[in-house]
Amino acid sequence: MSLKNAFTIIFGKLMVKTLHLLGRDAGNFPGLVLWTINKDCLKAFKVDCPIVAVTGTNGKTSVTNYLSHIFASGGKKIITNPEGNNLDTGICSLLLNHCDMRGRVHADYLVLETDESHVPVVYSKLNLQTLVLLNFFRDQLDRNGEVETLILKVKKFLETFEGNVVLNADDPNVARLGLANPNNKNIHYFSVDRYQGATDKPYEVGEGKFCPFCDTELVYDYYQYSHIGKFHCPKCGFGNIEPEVEIKNVDLTVPSFEADGETYKTAHNSIYYMYNMAAVYTAAKLYNFDKAILHDTFEHFEVNNGRLERFEVDGSSLLVNLAKNPVGANMTLRVMNEQAGSKELLFVLNDNLADGHDVSWIWDINFSVFNNVDRVVTSGTRAYDIAIRIKCSGYDPDKIFVYPDLDEATASLFSTKGDKFAIANYTAIQPTRAAIKRYKSLKENGEEK
Ligand SMILES: [Zn+2]
C-alpha cells in the first residue's frame, strides 16, 4: 500500500472514530473529506470480494434492499448502503465504516446502490462484477442534465466492461446498452410480458421513443408504463430482444408473477414493482440462490423506507411512495387508480437542494386520470404549486386542501376514513413518514390533537 493510501485510510478511520465518540452519525461527511484530500481514495481500500451494483432512475433503493436480503438469507456476509448513500462520497464513507486500519474490507459481497452518473467514477476504481440497470427517466434535471448525457456516461463505462450486465429489455434507453461492448458475453436481459393494464398508446410522458441507432420512431406492440414496453425499430431492427428472464402472468390481484415456470407471490401490486422484481430475480439467478429464499423474499420482504410502504392508521390504510420524477408519481397514481373504491391522496412537494429547486416536473404528472379520488391534501414547501397543478388538470378545487405544515396535512388526511395514498418527493419522504408515525402514535395513545 502506498504511503498516501495508508495515510488516507488512517486519517479516515480516525475521523469516523472521532465522530462516533462525539455521538455523531458520520453519514456522508468522512467520504466527502477523504474525496477532497485524495481523489483516488477509493483505490486505497482493499476490496477482494465481488461487487454487485444497482443503478437506474427509479427503483434502485428497493432493488438493492431486495438483493441484499437475498444474499444475506443465502448466508452471505454483505455490506450494503440500504439508505441509498449512492454517490462516490457515500460509497467511500460506507467502505471507511467497514474497513480495518489497513483499508481491508471483509465481506462476501458488496451490494451497492449507485447513482447513474457515479457508476463510471466509482467502478473505474473498484472492481465491479455485476451491474444491474433498471431504467432511465428524466430525473432532477438540475443535477443530472439531460437523460441522454447520463446514458452516454454509462455507455462509455460499459464499452470496456466485461462483467455481468443485467438490463431491462423493455426500456429502449437501457436495452441499447447491451450493444455497448460487443465483446462482452455476459449480457443478461430481463423483460415483463404484457400485463392487464398495458396500453396500445403511451399513457404517460416518456423518454426514448426514437431509435438510438438510426433515429427512426420506435414501434410499440404495447406500453406497460411510461416508455417501458415491447418495442422495435422498423428500420434497423433494434429491439425484439430475446430476454434471458421473462416474467409472465403478472397478476396484480393476488399479487403474483411467474418466472421460469414457477409462480411467486409478491408483497406489492404494481407493474413498476414487478419490473423491480424481474431485475432482482435475474440478478439472483446469476448467483444461483435457492428458490425458497426467492419465494420468501418476494412474498414477505418489505423495505419500509417510504418506497411503497404501508401504514395502518386509525382504521384507514395508507400507501406511501417516494416520487422524485413524473414517472415515479405516475406509478403511484396508477396503483391508486387501479384500486377499486374511493380514496384520498396526500401529495407532499419540497424544493430543497436535493430535490432540485425546479419543480416544473409536476406538470408532466398525469393527474387527468383520477379515478374515484374524493379529496386531495397537499403539503411541503411547494404545497401551493402542487395544488395548482392538480386544479389545472380539471380536478374540483373544492376538494383540494392545502396545508404547508405536515402535521396539519396528516391530521386533515385522516379526518376521514378509507383508503389513502401519499406521494412525497426526495426530502419530503422522511418528514412525511415521521408525521404519519406521530399522528398514529397520538391516535393510539388516545391523545386527540
Ligand atoms: Zn433503428
TrEMBL record:
Residues 322-429 form the Lipid II isoglutaminyl synthase (glutamine-hydrolyzing) subunit MurT C-terminal domain. Its EC number is 6.3.5.13. The keyword Ligase applies. The lipid II isoglutaminyl synthase complex catalyzes the formation of alpha-D-isoglutamine in the cell wall lipid II stem peptide. The MurT subunit catalyzes the ATP-dependent amidation of D-glutamate residue of lipid II, converting it to an isoglutamine residue. PANTHER family: LIPID II ISOGLUTAMINYL SYNTHASE (GLUTAMINE-HYDROLYZING) SUBUNIT MURT (PTHR23135:SF7), MUR LIGASE FAMILY MEMBER (PTHR23135). It catalyses: beta-D-GlcNAc-(1->4)-Mur2Ac(oyl-L-Ala-gamma-D-Glu-L-Lys-D-Ala-D-Ala)-di-trans,octa-cis-undecaprenyl diphosphate + ATP = beta-D-GlcNAc-(1->4)-Mur2Ac(oyl-L-Ala-gamma-D-O-P-Glu-L-Lys-D-Ala-D-Ala)-di-trans,octa-cis-undecaprenyl diphosphate + ADP; beta-D-GlcNAc-(1->4)-Mur2Ac(oyl-L-Ala-gamma-D-O-P-Glu-L-Lys-D-Ala-D-Ala)-di-trans,octa-cis-undecaprenyl diphosphate + NH4(+) = beta-D-GlcNAc-(1->4)-Mur2Ac(oyl-L-Ala-D-isoglutaminyl-L-Lys-D-Ala-D-Ala)-di-trans,octa-cis-undecaprenyl diphosphate + phosphate + H(+); beta-D-GlcNAc-(1->4)-Mur2Ac(oyl-L-Ala-gamma-D-Glu-L-Lys-D-Ala-D-Ala)-di-trans,octa-cis-undecaprenyl diphosphate + L-glutamine + ATP + H2O = beta-D-GlcNAc-(1->4)-Mur2Ac(oyl-L-Ala-D-isoglutaminyl-L-Lys-D-Ala-D-Ala)-di-trans,octa-cis-undecaprenyl diphosphate + L-glutamate + ADP + phosphate + H(+). It is an enzyme of class 6 (ligase). GO terms for molecular function: acid-amino acid ligase activity; ATP binding; carbon-nitrogen ligase activity on lipid II; peptidase activity; zinc ion binding. InterPro entries: Lipid_II_synth_MurT, Mur-like_cat_sf, Mur_ligase_cen, MurT_C. Keywords: ATP-binding, Cell shape, Cell wall biogenesis/degradation, Hydrolase, Ligase, Metal-binding, Nucleotide-binding, Peptidoglycan synthesis, Protease, Zinc. The gene is murT. Residues 54-193 form the Mur ligase central domain. Forms a heterodimer with GatD. SUPFAM superfamilies: MurD-like peptide ligases, catalytic domain. Belongs to the MurCDEF family. MurT subfamily. Pathway: Cell wall biogenesis; peptidoglycan biosynthesis. Zn(2+) binds at residues 211, 214, 233, 236. The active site is at 358. GO terms for biological process: cell wall organization; peptidoglycan biosynthetic process; proteolysis; regulation of cell shape. This is Lipid II isoglutaminyl synthase (glutamine-hydrolyzing) subunit MurT.
